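chain below, 359 aa
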Amino acid sequence: MANDSTGEGYMALQFHPEVSHTEHGSEILKHFVFTKCRAKKNWEGQHLVDHLVDEIKKKVGPSEKVLCALSGGVDSTVTAVLLTKALGRDRVQSVFVDTGLMRLNEADQVMSAYKEIDLPVQCVMAEKEFLGALDGIADPEKKRKTIGRVFIEVFEAATKNSPCQWLAQGTLYPDVIESVSVHGQSVTIKSHHNVGGLPEKMGLKLVEPLRELFKDEVRALGTQLGIKPELLHRHPFPGPGLAIRILDAINREDLEILKKADDVFISELRKNGLYGKIWQAFVCLLPVKTVGVMGDGRTYERVAALRAVTSLDGMTADWYPFEHKFLAHVSNRITNEVKGINRVVYDISSKPPATIEWE
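prediction:
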């Protein structure tokens, strides 16, 4: 191997040791960082909090205020609490938009959770606007872009008299990677409605303090900030919500069917002590009808697909190996309790080649 400045004689191999599918990937990285590069592990969670607080203070002027778009999920919650720590309660205006695309009773649960952690939040009811804009749209990219557009419109209308100069969003690095690369070329896998900048017409600048963090790092950060575990360890939920879990055009009837089926699945995960072992779990409503039998009658109803994966950062994922008895119980409950579904299937695809969400 040559050791001159030209680099001749050197060989390199590019792969992804950081993903969970890479055997001994963590050990490879540790060996490279601590043995080869001789780096010292002198960072702690509090250092990250202090660093991000300093970065926010440098970016947001001393007399400026920030609007924070809250979804009820881990990312936006940590963002809001971090901003409040950095700037104080008087300089952060948090807004939660109820799109009507959330899970069963989730909007009420979210607002109650924010009240418990003493985070002042304005709730905007906008189900009519979102469902109206989505009417007849089945293409997943069009759904995402439509939801992103309507979100901006609703948010702008609700905050038109706001004194804020900045808009904060809980964008994470996997969102950025799948939407547009910040450090070089990457393929756009899917659009994320909270990625890609803010329309200039709003007159707001964008601040995304978590933009280069992964989900596990965000949860660790939230722990340092004193956020309750029940908020931090909720399964990820996509910005477009249930719109991308109905693999067809959206209507209120299908939304109600999906909400009930998803509630059965998640409640059984909690009841059986499985929720905390799984990275993300949900139900998809497929654009397929099949023949079934209920009592002495023939049915022709929808198919629901269960999805549950384990992961470290969301970049790669494996399907969860449920016991057959559990799957049978969930299937029986859904088909017996949710009118409109007569068949349940379980998705055993890993990421890659599949993504975690179906759309």
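The mean pLDDT is 87. The longest helix spans residues 252-271.
thats it, cya
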